[in-house]
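go over this record:
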Amino acid sequence: MYIVDSDNNKLIPAQSTSFKDQNIKERQHLQEWIAKNPEVLGEKLLIIQKEFDGFSDTRERLDLLALDDQGNVVVIENKLDDSGRDVTWQAIKYASYCSSLSKEEIIEIYAKYLGESKDIAIEKICAFYDIDDLEEMDLNLENTQRIFFVAANFRREITSSVLWLRNYGIDARCYKVSPFVYNGKLLVDFDQIIPMKDAEDYVIKMAEKKKAETTQAAATRQRHNERSEFWQKFIDYNQQVNGDYASSAGTPDSWLGKGGIGIPGVSVNIVISKTFSRTEIYVNTGDKDLNKRVYDYYYSQKDKLENQLGTLDWQRLDDRVTCRIAQAKSLTYCNEDDHQEIFEFFTERTSAFIKAFNQASRGFKK
């Protein structure tokens, strides 16, 4: 690793060191670094527990337990200056233990980690996946568990085992973490060494077979087909009653949108899930600050809008880019008996929302 000396336009080498020499501890330091900044492993991860020991009839603990952006459980095992000989077998055991975790158990594990209620845990998981209803997200399906190894050095028997696991469809990865010292500061570099194209010093080259499609992909495809059928029926109904979506083309996965609400980037959307159907004003101008100003402008007219539309669910969503103002019913596309009522709800509410928010948009200035 080199430090750029901009004043003299040259590179200054940082001094390679070891965690032992720097008195760095596995749990106290390396584990905490990853827990607080899981993005160092090169992807979006949600840490849901540290030192997880929720296994029946065993006192074993895995270092870090996480969820990836596809809903897969990720077992993260950390070692310091040397990977050791048995870490692969250890992690395989942990992954097998975790394979039986249900969605409810994952929520409970995360709530315990947060020291909060299950409702808060669900809210944070939904925010991580940018979804409104956790029922819409599959977690820990069948054999989708992943294993990440983190160490300063990997023995050949470990890298060989990891490649063998990958060859049989198990997503195992190795991350080399290297400590350096410069000007009294400790620097740390995380480098994914497996999988990578050329890693002759760490791996025994093997061809990686293409993974079979997982149950998750099949389940997602099935939901998409069911929703597509629902939307086609809704569009047919809209054509019969000359509704606002009569000319809509295509069958999206979970929502339909219609613009022209008076402010660019504001649309009226209709959304379906396994537990609700929702009509909403969706504010997404592409600029977070502008979105919040648009929302606040509408909120200043809250009494007038609710006199026209009834009680609204005002969601400024400060931790997200977008904003939402909505009404929902406990009707689901999964129940065919609900379809007609959903069609009528969407058609009537869409028309009412467009009229009310077009009026409310007048006078807004960027």
